[in-house]
Amino acid sequence: MGMMLDTLPCEVLTMIADWLPPASLRALGRVSSGLYSVLVPQLYRAVTFRAASEWALNVLDVDSFLLHHGHSGTTSFLQHTRHLYIQAPIHLARFNRCAYYNIFRTAGLAQGPSTLGAADETRAHEQFLDDIADQLHVVLAQLKPDGLRTFQWRLGTCIPAGVLDEGGYLSRRQNRLTCLSLVTDGTCPHACHRLDSLSQLSSLTKLEWDGIQHPAEVESLRQCIRRNWKHLNDLSIGFVLSPNARSLRWDDLGLRWPGAGPCDEDESTHFPPLSTLSLSKVSLSENLQDYSSFRSLQALTLRDCPNVLRFLRSLSGSRITLNLREFELCCDFLLHEPDDDYEFSSVVKFLFSFRGLQHLRLRLSNFPELGFRVEDAIRHHRPTLESLVYHQRQLAPIDNEGLFEDDRDVSPVWIPDLPAIVDLCRVTTLALCANPSAARMCLQPAAANSTLQVLHLRFSGAERMHWDIRHEVLALLRKRRGGCSPTDQVDEVDEVAEIPVYSDGESDHVSFFDHYFDCSMTWQSDLQKVEMDTPSAPSEAEDFVAFAEWAFGPSGLPALQVLAFGDFSHDDRYPGQQFVVRREDRSGPCSGEGSGPSVCNNHNGLSFCPASMDDPSIWDGVSLDGIRLLTACPDGGLIESPYEL
């Protein structure tokens, strides 16, 4: 087979490589030098470096990568890299992530943490960034000049020197960069604002920046947008509140066509509008000077934006013809001005103002029930709707006396009428805040002809931090399977994600097996402990398993591939409050390629098995972006401010 592939043209081999998992690419690359030269570069087109802990953000896995994947002869594998990602978890530390507030960074200073002065605190911050810079520049030095297309900074910290400052690496050596994604620490009191060369990047088609707070950052963003306005298609902005800047207004960015009004078609030809816009906590005006920025938007996301209700009312009443295909809104009615009571219907009116929506994602909190018929607005887009996310929350008492209230998940009253609201023979992905029993009741009448491929039963992870759904469901599955051997643990899906994974997504064989055998007894004892600690009748876990048995069974949803339960906000912020199962592949292990050892062997005929979000094969056969569905309408921001608490 390898010799046959070796005779194929490079173009055909490249197309084949796009469909193969990393392990298969690596194996084929060893067959011959010809295959190696074509296939191996595909492995390193996208490289990710991670800080494993958000409490040690200056410890990246650069050394591990260079040890296992450093060079091939005299050439660095990083010469093939086109997409570079620098990432870290953003779970508990959602503000003040830089060195200034981390005690371990004061080690080696003359004074102890309790007596440090401002000068030493500033020095600690500089040492922290220098530590990151030393590791990062080792990577940047091995990249091909002008070869990079994507650069992502997702550490949630200030950016070190030599990257985006004056004369920095990206503007000096990577002039063909088309995608820039930044998550920075706007709450850092020692933010260095090393962003002077941001406006020198002139080829960007996609710009994302979350964590903006300081005026200098806003100015850098404004200049970068203006520099790339002619070809910028995708713009995402996330603001973080501060005591000095309570809001960032959309008008502050000056995003309007030069010298043009809504009807100036000649100017709009030279300055094409955005196709995708995402705003988080950016204040919107109800009296925009120019709506042309929204004229040709195909996707609009508004998350917790001040004044959004008045903005939607104004936009729906404008003369702009909207061509939206995707719309996402996260809004808490209680956070708007007291005189906005009449604005609660703005969401419905906006959705009625146009047609053709294919993907609708709503997270609505504390909206009045009386007169707010969002289901009618959803039905308005029934002929074209392919995916729907709906999450509703309301204030509810949290104590027996009713003295204290907090937001709680609410199942929509219109859930029983779902088949009349959305076309279940057309919708392929669906996410609802509903318990499994209610979901089955509304889906069962149209199940035989259902086209659902991904179904997500949502709840808020922060509301159920005391409940570890993952372990409860796994313990229940283990009971139903009648026990597993250490090499057949259903719980392995939880642990595989902790195995070190390098740039190509393939774990080193030695480290994998060492990890597996060292931890197998721990997994077994942990699972036994969970089984003992779990109540004899965990009703929600049993409801979910019963729903999965029906959904993947002969009388269930025939097209369903993935069933998710819980909160997937910002990826794995709530790992214990999320669980995923997939339809079992009868032709092989249900864990799929890249998930490690088999997670189950289907001892008692179950038609589904646990799945890992780290396994890309779970989305095989899914026509839409499944991860986008699960992470839509998140609970809270990626980067938050202490002034919001």
Please describe what this structure looks like.
- The termini are far apart.
- The chain has helices spanning 2-6, 10-17, 22-29, 33-43, 62-69, 118-140, 169-173, 215-228, 265-270, 308-316, 346-352, 374-380, 418-421, 436-443, 469-481, 492-495, 509-533, 539-551, 626-631, and strands at 46-50, 71-72, 75-76, 83-87, 150-154, 179-183, 206-212, 234-239, 248-249, 276-280, 282-283, 299-303, 326-332, 359-365, 387-397, 405-410, 429-432, 454-458, 562-566, 578-583, 608-610.
- With 645 residues, it is α/β, with parallel strands linked by helices.
- The protein has a 17-stranded mixed beta sheet that branches. A two-stranded antiparallel sheet has the order 2-3.
- Among the domains are: 2-80 and 91-133, no CATH class; 469-631, no CATH class.
- The chain contains 19 helices and 21 strands.
Beta-strand percentage range: 15-25%
Task: Indicate the radius of gyration in whole angstroms.
Answer: 26 Å
How far the N terminus sits from the C terminus, by CA atoms, comes to 60 Å
Work out the oligomeric state of the chains in this entry. Answer: single chain
Helix run count: 19
Which ranges are low-confidence, i.e. pLDDT below 50, for 5 or more consecutive residues? 105-109, 257-271, 485-538, 591-603
* Residue share in helix: 25-40%
Give the overall shape.
globular
Judged by helices, strands and strand pairing, the structural class is: alpha/beta
Summarize the main sheet: 17 strands, mixed
Count of extended strands: 21
The pLDDT mean sits at 80
